[in-house]
């Protein structure tokens, strides 16, 4: 891409990565076939497919359609090779416990954006009555039958709320999760579990109540659109002074993000299931603080900093969710950004131009930040570490090309995997 090419046109948003991952783990709860639609074809979904298969689930995939039949689970042990790739795979523990009475799951890996412990998960499962042992890098849990309980989360963790909801669905009695996460992906999981026969109240608020039922059935369910993919295209439009409409979205899911993009100067027109993002002038500096939903999402912090690095003025961005989510700043600096990091705060003095450079994506959203920065940069950028980007963005290269970007994969030219914006 020659720096500054305006993106123009419309792009269809894929299904939500974080919604689909939690729901796929939840599908282990049903004896019977679950059909999921609008499932994105991305690395993390393939990892979850392999994880569920390793436990005995039968899975078929066809386009954005996925069927999971977990009637005959054959193993209570999730393989290290798969769980180390992705944090969300730890969430098979609760469903395995509920179905088989025991589970052994290695400590998870995933994007390196902070300590990301699993203590809330483990404490929650223990509060539901499971015996827990941690040994050789694995968490082993056992319980003939989980019992409903009151669980208070020290932080409204999205993954823990989702995980404990699935664990509690087949427990004896009522579970109440206080200080629960209110992310749309939590509500998506609750809607899916409710369709399966679960009794859940309050999803999307800070108190979620789950009354245990005896069994859950397989259902046909459509995953919500990926609000982070939609937001990334919004920032890509803004940083290139472009005009992009994202389609097949739920605009309310982007409510915490849209006002900040508007503060940065973007024009945003919301319709029923589309959002048009335009930028007519240079971005304006604005301060951002990431927070659990409905605050500004941490997943959009990195691409937003890329946009603000070209803004008129100085912005202060505070990361309140993950302490190491600023690792990409050194890569943006390579491209000419003027950013100073002090602990969890980044101070961004807008520059008038970024320049292309060889850079490396260190995690998924860091990759997104580098891609949007490269879209606006003068000259060629080569981004290594694309496996991180492929974990979470479906057909990113094709979608950006359809909007006019000059981006291609270097895989065919060289053996490494890199994205080139030249
Ligand atoms: N935390 C703990 N202990 C725990 C669990 C979480 O201390 O047992 C802390 C984390 O270290 C973090 C905070 O709680 O500081 C929030 O973490 P949360 O549990 O909410 O994150 P997660 O469930 O692991 C999901 C998404 C992330 C997204 C966050 C926040 C999935 C698969 N991942 O992670 O998505 O950033 O919620 O919204 O759902 C991404 O898509 O790029 C991504 C990282």
Number of discrete domains: 2
What's the total count of β strands?
A: 23
Q: How would you classify the helix and strand content by structural class?
A: alpha+beta
Poorly predicted tracts of residues: none
- Average pLDDT across residues? 94
How large a portion of the residues is in β-strands, by DSSP E? 15-25%
Biggest β-sheet description: 4 strands, mixed
Could you outline the blueprint of secondary structure elements for this entry?
Layout: E1 8-12, H1 17-26, E2 33-37, H2 43-54, E3 58-62, E4 65-69, H3 80-83, H4 93-100, E5 102-106, H5 119-127, E6 131-135, E7 138-142, E8 150-152, H6 158-169, E9 174-178, H7 184-196, E10 199-201, E11 207-211, E12 220-222, H8 227-239, E13 243-247, H9 258-263, E14 267-270, E15 274-278, E16 288-289, H10 301-308, E17 314-318, H11 329-334, E18 338-342, E19 345-349, E20 358-360, H12 364-376, E21 381-384, H13 386-392, H14 396-402, E22 407-409, E23 418-421
Parallel strand pairs: 1-13, 2-12, 8-9, 16-17, 20-21
Antiparallel strand pairs: 2-4, 3-4, 5-7, 6-7, 9-11, 10-11, 13-15, 14-15, 17-19, 18-19, 21-23, 22-23
The structure holds uridine-diphosphate-2(N-acetylglucosaminyl) butyric acid (EPU).
Report on this structure:
The chain has 422 residues and is an alpha+beta fold. The chain folds into 2 domains: 17-218, Alpha-beta prism (UDP-n-acetylglucosamine1-carboxyvinyl-transferase, Chain), CATH 3.65.10.10; 226-421, UDP-n-acetylglucosamine1-carboxyvinyl-transferase, Chain (Alpha-beta prism). Helix content is 30%, strand content 23%. It is built from 14 helices and 23 strands. It has helices at residues 17-26, 43-54, 80-83, 93-100, 119-127, 158-169, 184-196, 227-239, 258-263, 301-308, 329-334, 364-376, 386-392, 396-402; strands at 8-12, 33-37, 58-62, 65-69, 102-106, 131-135, 138-142, 150-152, 174-178, 199-201, 207-211, 220-222, 243-247, 267-270, 274-278, 288-289, 314-318, 338-342, 345-349, 358-360, 381-384, 407-409, 418-421. The protein has a 4-stranded mixed beta sheet. A 4-stranded mixed beta sheet has the order 3-4-2-12, covered by helices on one side. Strand 18 (338-342) and strand 19 (345-349) form a beta hairpin. Helix 1 packs parallel to helix 2 (43-54). The longest helix is centred in the middle third of the chain and has 13 residues, at 184-196. It is elongated and about 65 Å long. The termini are close together. The model has no long low-confidence stretch (mean pLDDT 94). The site of uridine-diphosphate-2(N-acetylglucosaminyl) butyric acid has 29 residues, from helix 1, helix 5, helix 6 and helix 12.
């Amino acid at each position: 891409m020659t720096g500054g090419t305006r993106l123009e046109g419309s792009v269809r948003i894929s299904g939500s990565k974080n919604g689909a991952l939690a729901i796929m783990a939840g599908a282990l709860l049903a004896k019977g076939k679950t059909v999921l639609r609008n499932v994105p074809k991305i690395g993390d979904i393939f990892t979850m497919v392999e994880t569920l298969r390793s436990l005995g689930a039968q899975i078929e995939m066809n386009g954005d359609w996925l069927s999971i039949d977990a009637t005959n689970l054959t193993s209570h042990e999730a393989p290290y090779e798969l769980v180390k790739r992705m944090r969300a795979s730890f969430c098979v523990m609760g469903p395995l416990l509920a179905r088989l009475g025991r589970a052994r799951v290695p400590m998870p890996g995933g994007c390196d954006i902070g300590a990301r412990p699993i203590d809330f998960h483990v404490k929650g499962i223990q509060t539901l009555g499971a015996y827990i042992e941690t040994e050789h890098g694995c968490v082993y849990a056992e319980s003939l039958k989980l019992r409903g309980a009151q669980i208070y989360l020290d932080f409204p963790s999205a993954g823990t709320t989702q995980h404990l909801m699935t664990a509690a669905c087949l427990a004896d009695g009522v579970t109440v999760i206080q200080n629960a996460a209110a992310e749309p992906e939590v509500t998506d999981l609750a809607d899916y579990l409710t369709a399966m026969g679960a009794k859940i109240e309050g999803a999307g608020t800070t108190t979620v109540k789950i009354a245990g039922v005896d069994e859950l059935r397989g259902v046909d369910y459509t995953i919500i659109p990926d609000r982070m993919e939609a937001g990334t295209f919004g920032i890509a439009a803004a940083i290139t002074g472009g005009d992009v409409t994202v389609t097949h979205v739920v605009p309310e899911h982007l409510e915490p993000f849209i006002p900040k993009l508007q503060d940065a100067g973007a024009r945003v027109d919301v319709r029923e299931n589309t959002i048009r993002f335009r930028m007519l002038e240079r971005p304006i500096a604005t301060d951002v603080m990431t927070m659990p939903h409905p605050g500004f999402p941490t997943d959009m912090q990195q691409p937003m900093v890329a946009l603000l690095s070209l803004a008129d003025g100085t912005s202060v961005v505070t990361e309140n969710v993950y302490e190491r989510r600023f690792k990409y700043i050194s890569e943006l600096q390579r491209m000419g950004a003027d950013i100073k990091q002090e602990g969890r705060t980044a101070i961004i003095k807008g520059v008038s131009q970024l320049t292309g450079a060889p850079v490396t994506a260190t995690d998924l959203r860091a990759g997104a930040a580098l891609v949007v920065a490269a879209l606006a940069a003068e000259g060629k950028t080569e981004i290594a570490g694309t496996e991180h980007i492929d974990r979470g963005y479906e057909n990113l290269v094709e979608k950006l090309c359809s909007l006019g970007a000059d981006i291609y994969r270097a895989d065919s030219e060289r053996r490494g995997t890199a994205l080139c914006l030249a």
